Amino acid sequence: MTTVTVTPAAEAAPGSLGRLRQTLADTLVLARRSLVRTLSEPESLIDVTLTPVVFTLLFAYVVGGAISLPDGVSYHDYLVPGMFAMTMASASTGTATAVNNDMAGGIIDRFRSLPMSRAGVLAGQSLADLLATVIAVLVLAGTGLAIGWRIHTDAAHAAEGFLLILLFAYALNWGMSCLGMVFRSAEGVQQFGVLMMLGLTFVSSAFVPTGGMPGWLREVANWNPLSALAAAIRNLFGNPNPAGSVHAWPLQHPELATTLYSLGLIALFAPLAVRLYRTRTSK
Amino acid sequence: MSVSNGGGSAVSVRGLKKRFGDFEALKGVEFDVPAGTVVGVLGPNGAGKTTTVRVLATLLEPDGGEAVVGGHDVRKDPAAVRRAIGLTGQYAALDEFQSGRDNLVMIGRLSGLGRRAARERSEELLEGFDLAEAAGRPVKGYSGGMRRRLDLAASLVARPRVLFLDEPTTGLDPRSRNVMWDVIRDLVADGTTLLLTTQYLEEADQLADQIVVIDRGVVIAKGTPRELKSVLSGAQLEVAVSAGDDLATAALVLGDFATGPATIDSETRHVRVPVTTRSRLATEVVGALTAAGIDLDDCSIRRPSLDDVFLALTGHTTPQGADPADEADGVPAPVG
């Protein structure tokens, strides 16, 4: 048995700069923890590896034949940006599941009894999931290139497109953290997550122009953040963007709209998530 | 900023109240833990032990009353309380996928230790808790006893002044329990203030300087294990005579020492009488019986066990072998 000396720990509260440093340090430590978990369960990466490939191939070779686009528009060029949008939505459900698992285990009590940042657990999870998103983007870009999708703009626009994808994914992760804490069971989280993902993806211009939808649904789809994201990616990659002619503000200014949507989601859900984290775990 | 009040109390609890919906988990709990001592909070499932610990560790906000830990009020300055305490809950609060070492380093980093200090402290604890060999393996492969030890180590990484252990041995096999007891005794020898909850009377008896008995949200008794046992100051004196013919004579002789009527079991040739314990009692009893020409097979004076005490205090027996999960998720089951 080791000697456990009893020295009064430094119990003075750190200043605000100290707190910020602590939050960053805690976030990195906990992001590492989430990554270790992901790597020890590689099947949890199916969401961001196999799924995008399968869906892309399904849409490209099965569904795509039945979708009519204006002459001269390559369906594959049109499809892949939509796949990016869809994959961001589906990959984010992993955050909800991970947060839900954490809340069910005893480890959250330990974290809450430590003098650590209250936002650390959630910020760490979002950061780790952002790295999973990077994997998804790379897999998807590879699959796209293989089936003939191309970026027709310069490197700066392409980079902006990818950054926008990641920003949106990060914002969505905070929303999913809230979802993970609101639900009691992991099954509930998964089922609701899938429904939400389907709704977000298909009531949008990710795969089909919104013109064919009934009036009210068309409005919902036009203002769906995922429509803005898909339109922004299409613009920035120089892929066909039929939504460009739709007279809805987010589709007229998709890059700005996506940025605002993302910042809005973070501003709304990050504080809410931290709040839920406090109350949920303190029962 | 940390001036402990109440004359060296590491933990001071006054009129603590907490309710969950209709269920009053704590109805005004009061006790102190003097610095450097071990207090055992003893009670059955649903008594309010876990709720008390969760309030003291800032995991739950109390509805009423006051709790001061390490000189800091849990409501007014929970952050300072967290810097003073270590907590080990009922279920191993560990990351299953990381190694034992990485778990400890992570806790150290989250407690504000630098990378190097966290690493050194972890090695020290792994060595001390006999986990050095398994340190590099993921925790999901650990046995129950190893998890408990790692969990305890995790609560010590930041060298807390006050340590809370919530049912540290529930669910462990007897061997692992003994190992845990040794570990806890060593800790205490080093001067850590410890508050532990348990539903095992023997555990409180073994480890605690002071016992607080809690039932249905109120403290029903407190004192040293010895004091609590003397609540039933009476002991039982029992002799086994060699010859069955001597039973009646023996009962007559024992009558001089007894505080109540004798019970005779002729089948096992035992005579039992209630007595008040005092020095030289056994010597005098054996002397008197020998003088009366009675040969003895056995003579014993049995002090009441804490089980007897608990029964006397609460009017119900302790739920040995009851499912500890009743109180596991922080919402104690109502006591039936």
What does this structure look like?
The complex is a heterodimer of chains A (283) and B (336). Chain A is mostly helical and 283 residues long. In chain A, 71% of the residues lie in helices and 0% in strands. Chain A is built from twelve helices and no strands. In chain A, helix 3 packs parallel to helix 7 (155-182), helix 3 (75-91) packs across helix 10 (225-237) and helix 6 (120-146) crosses helix 7. Chain A starts with 15 loop residues before the first helix and ends with a helix. Residues 1-9 of chain A have low confidence and may be disordered. Helices cover 32% and strands 26% of the residues of chain B. In chain B, helix 3 (100-110) packs parallel to helix 5 (144-156). Chain B starts with 8 loop residues before the first strand and ends in a 22-residue tail after the last helix. At the A-B interface, helix 1 and helix 5 of A face helix 2, strand 6, helix 3, helix 4 and helix 5 of B. Chain A: The chain crosses the membrane at residues 45-67, 79-99, 120-149, 161-183, 195-217, 259-277. Chain A: It comes from Streptomyces boncukensis. Chain A: It is a multi-pass membrane protein.
Summarize the structure.
The complex is a heterodimer of chains A (283) and B (336). Chain A is built from twelve helices and no strands.
Keyphrases for this structure?
heterodimer; A: 283 residues; mainly alpha; 12 helices; 71% helix; disordered N terminus; B: 336 residues; alpha/beta; Rossmann fold; Alpha-Beta Plaits; 2 domains; 6-stranded mixed β-sheet; 11 helices; 26% strand; elongated; disordered C terminus
Largest sheet of chain A: none
Which H/E pattern describes the elements of chain B? EEEHEEHEHHHEHEHEEHEHEEHEH
Structural class of chain A: mainly alpha
Helix/strand order of chain A: HHHHHHHHHHHH
Q: Count the E strands of chain A.
A: 0
**Most strands sheet of chain B:** 6 strands, mixed
Q: What is the overall shape of chain A?
A: elongated
Q: What gyration radius of chain A follows from the Cα positions, in whole Å? A: 21 Å
In the CATH hierarchy, the architecture of the largest domain in chain B is 3-Layer(aba) Sandwich
Give the name of the CATH superfamily of the largest domain in chain B.
P-loop containing nucleotide triphosphate hydrolases
CATH topology value of the largest domain in chain B: Rossmann fold
GO biological process, one term (chain B): daunorubicin transport
Protein name (chain B): ABC-type xenobiotic transporter
Family (chain B): Belongs to the ABC transporter superfamily. Drug exporter-1 (DrugE1) (TC 3.A.1.105) family.
GO cellular component, one term (chain B): plasma membrane
